[in-house]
Design goal:
Number of strands of chain A: 4
Strand content of chain A: under 5%
Order of helices and strands of chain A: HHHHHHHHHHHHHHHEHHEEHEHHHH
Protein name (chain B): GATOR2 complex protein WDR24
InterPro entries (chain B): WD40/YVTN_repeat-like_dom_sf, WD40_repeat_CS, WD40_repeat_dom_sf, WD40_rpt, WDR24
Helix content of chain B: 25-40%
Radius of gyration of chain B: 43 Å
Number of helices of chain B: 23
Oligomer: heterodimer
Keywords (chain B): Metal-binding, Repeat, WD repeat, Zinc, Zinc-finger
Radius of gyration of chain A: 21 Å
GO molecular function (chain B): zinc ion binding
Structural class of chain A: mainly alpha
GO biological process, one term (chain B): positive regulation of macroautophagy
Structural class of chain B: alpha+beta
Largest sheet of chain B: 5 strands, antiparallel
Strand order of the largest sheet of chain A: 1-4
Helix content of chain A: 55-70%
Strand order of the largest sheet of chain B: 1-2-29-28-27
Strand content of chain B: 15-25%
Largest sheet of chain A: 2 strands, parallel
Number of domains of chain A: 1
Distance between the termini of chain B: 98 Å
Chain lengths: ~475, ~800
Amino acid sequence: MPVTRVPRNIRQRLHFKTLNLFMDAFIQNNRLDSVSQVMGYHPDYLRIFLSTQHFLLREDGPLSYDYRHYIAIMAAARHHCTYLLELHEQDFLRHSGDPEWLKGLDHAPRKLRDLSEINKLLAHQPWLITKEHMLKLLKSPEPWSLSELMHAIILLTHFHSLCSFVFGCGISSEVDSQGGHTYLESVLTSTAPTSLSTSSSTSPGSSGAITTTITTTGATTMATNGATGNGFADVNSNGNCQVNGDESDVCVKALMEKMRQVQEAPAGILSAEERIKQFNMEGKSTAEIAVPNFKQPASKSEIMKYVQDSGFAYTDFATRKCTEVSTFCACDYSWEDHGFSLANRLYTDIGNYLDDKYSTAANMTYYTMGDLREVDTSSFRRAIWNYIHIMYGICHDDYDYSELNQLLEINLKAYIKTLTCYPERLKKKDFDGVMKGFQHSEKVHVNLMLMEARQQAELLYALRALNSYLT
Amino acid sequence: MVYDKVTNSSSQFQAMQYKVCDTQLNALAVNKDHSQVIAAGRSVFKILHIKEDGFSENINLLLGKHRDPDQNFCTNDVAWHPSEENVIASAATNGSVVIWNLNMHGMFKQSKILTKHSRSVSRVLFHDSEHNQLLSASHDGFVMIHDTRTENSFIKFGMAGTDCVKDAQFCPSSIGYFNFAAAYENGCVQTWDMRWSDKCERQFMAHNGPVFSIDWHPADKTWWLATTGRDAMIKVWDMVRASSSSQPPCLYNITNIEPVARIKWRPNRKHHISSCSMSVDHCVNVWDVNRPYIPFAAFDGHKQSVTSIVWRDCQAFLSCDKAGYIIQHIFNDARRPADHVSMTGVDLSLNGDIGHAYCDKRVEQTTSSLGRSKKVSRSHQFAQASSSTFCVFQSHQSLFDDIDNVENNDELTLLWFVDIAHSYLLEGSSLVEMCWHNGNVAQHFKKPQVAQFWRMLAVIYTPCLNSQSGTSLATPNLALVSTLSDKQDLSELGTKPVAKRGKDKEKRKGNIRNLIQVDTTSGSTEESSEHEGESSEFERSAPEFNRNINFYFGDGEGGEEDLDDLESCTPVGLLTSDPYDWTLQRLPNEGFQPRHELNTMIGTYPHLMGDPTTGLTSVMDAPRSGELDVLLPPAQSYEPTLAVTQLHNPEPLDFSQSIADMISSLADQGDVQSAVSMLIVLGENIRPHIDEAFQECWYFSYIDLLTRFELWTISNIVIKQSKLPGVCSLNQASTAIQTQCPKCSRKCERAPWLCDKCKQVNNICSVCHHPVQGLMTWCQGCGHGGHLEHMREWMDISPKCPAGCGHLCEYS
């Protein structure tokens, strides 16, 4: 059985639609991996996810099968995701990949080594990608063709964001892979990824540290945002509620209340200046949210061999050093209008798959929240989506960023930020600590949105660079 | 004021460009007398003067030092008030619609800010006639119509939570005063009535993927709506004809290589529409909707993708791009992509042939055809390769008609080719028999035309042709009738297919009349009913001929008027247009000769003899004579005496030249198989009449095809029978094969059964113990064997190896 944080009894209730999809997935991949099982909560999404992944890995495309899996390995290694790493190492060998390459990036062809630069940037600071990077790849001694590069970029972004999902749902190794069948219950309940199992739940010190940082940063956020959000105190008090842990309903209800306020409030049109101010402020406050900053456990060599420049990590967009990178304005280069056609042109049909995936992840709703029914969750969903884009410096002109503060409580923000930027550092405690009162399927939904928004953000930067190379 | 002139032109306007700013420009709007233009984009909002020779900046509405924080946003669209010079509306990405009044004092010129939309506004637009109606379309799914005179009066169209509205346009007021159309991100286009905000009038799916832009045709009485979207198509819809519920008919479809960002109809041209693409392609294209694959005109000059187009008149337009340039384009300067394409055409026929037409330097336009098919499976690639050899012969003809012959899928695989090659008799029988046989073979493989050829040859070379007509030619009648038609087809195809068709048609009328006459006169004898069946066929193909038949029948009835009729209906004009060599007509056999009336007719033939095209027509005579025979019996039944008389001495007829022509025309059509087979069968009868070089060429092609199909035996027969030195030598070359010694693998040079090195006799027959010099067979299991005959005898006696090794030998 797969190992996830989601309790088993809930997982067992399968929709017949899900069951059919599981069968298809099994036939496609010779296994029903844990990712699909967790996504089984959302059969509509799962269907699209599976067909996209199948398209990317198994159908006709510019790259050969062993390259595809090796690129997946490189992407997963960036986030220390053992689960995906092992899965694709197996697939790589199954598609007659050269076992020599698995000794590390240095043993792989130069073409793949060249890719590690944009792999690094895409994973952590996609805003640094420029057309020079593209030029370097396209004009190197072993050049990439445009469509190969497109395929590679989509694979990279797909697996980066899938890492977020894997960590977010606490999926650990498959049973048949190394370490998969020897888990103990204690490991299961702690951070599942084997690479991190050393710092399991038996390290109260680090978890304690998180809570304290959260409360302190919460105070600072209140100080900075005190002027804008009058409901902020409530948020904070809710955050406190959660520490008590019992009153999860209260939490959901409070969020509902916020959402209603946001929707009813005559959306006073804010000037662009104010918006930018807010956007920057939001970015800064995000930057102030501390993520669990424990020392990385001495990373295992089986991961590090695929990683170059392992010290490179996410830095907050708002506090970036190089100021020449300006905010990415979503209306100047949007996925729907610009990105789609470029992607589709270079890699036929991929645009349609991704389009479906994004819109399903973003628009899927069952009109529930926790135990409540008939809830319009659109503003909450949009807030999460845009919050992730903030972290990558993508600004939506027509979004009122003060809504974010009202809808996303501080520890949810911390959770999202950790998962988006440092997925490998997430703990089970974080997963349990947020969104109290939400159903498990809803938590998975949040993870899905997170994954898609992140992929879109990375892809937008990459496509924009490619586009400026082409023109 | 920096501007640079691009070119001078003779038209009223000049091409010019101006760099407005460094950032992206999103929209342009021109005031009503085209003297000023607004350029707007991200943190740009400038009004420029349009002068004769360039642009100059008039007002910068976003000046640095007076910078109002509210003004610093990205403008998606601008519109100039139709009547008031000083009022401008703009749409911002933050969801506000701003109305500017240039008359206001100071730098602050925003008179109203309408904040009814919650997301980016993509389009603002004033109504043509109701000048205070301002339409705005936004990503929040609403289209609103504001009254610019007041702050808070507006009508909302649409539903919350629907897809983004990407564009909206008022109908030209002459056709739909209250209507407008809106385009949505989900690919849908809706039309609304301004007075009825509950529900749209009509909704239809226009594109697969978001619709980016729509434009109503500006002309009166043309209810055309052009739409474009991410699927890179420009579609023109006829909005008036369809009922409100269904999809309107799509009149035109233009395929672009890239998603199109904006479209705009060209003024005063019904079929021209301009477009600019979203990302990679930087030119502005003007399309003729009737020519959907190549732009009518293309305008270069932009370094980044173009975002907006505004026409001044039909000869000039302004466009702005993402690099911050405004360019005025003049139609005279346009690049015409259609002028530079190489003229070529490819089409796939019903039968899977690809026709390819291309421009040739020497000839105006030649066409060639490739007998190739996409349907051919991999296993038939052989056939495919050889069918392209066929096309070598077809390429002489500048026609597609000749591919239109009855072809079916069997033909494409060329299976018939192999079967026919097997079945044709090329030697070992008399000429006439071979011809009959081959004719039947061809008939069997549904090649009636070739079959008729063969039968015709058989008839021509039948030695006793002059015997009594009623007896000898009863059988081939059918064949001959259609041979004529085929021959005509063949000979005329190359020269005047269209003309012929027309001629046929006009003559057919007369024939029907004649045919009826034939039927009635021929009465109810058995044979005549048989001919009746045929007559429809030859009526179709050989109308002129029918006329003549009619004449004879009429004559047979003995009416004087019929003779007059004859003379009137065989005027010189007809005869010369379809020359008819009467010398070859074996009329005497038919027993018409004694009729005095006919002499007048015969008297005309010197005149006809002079006709230059006897070569062709002489062939046609042959069937004609046969035909007469066929039709004779009924006549005989009326006047039996006519059949016996034979006054006229038959002249020795020379058909060879026409047969040669016929064979050449077959080969020209690509049927080397028939041509070569006929050559072989006819042998010396025909060989001198055809250029040997041609013959050789046909032989080589046919042999080549045969070897491709591994028909070695047949190809050898062909080579043997060819009697051409060049061809015969083919099977004389490299015929010696040296055997190898089974022990030392050395070539046995002296004798095939003796190895010089091993000093040993090889290949000894296990039965008679003598070296085998002819055919040898051996068992694959034990390796023993011997003379074919000996082994066969042995195996009848015993299943065991004759060498005594105990193996149970197996021979297949």
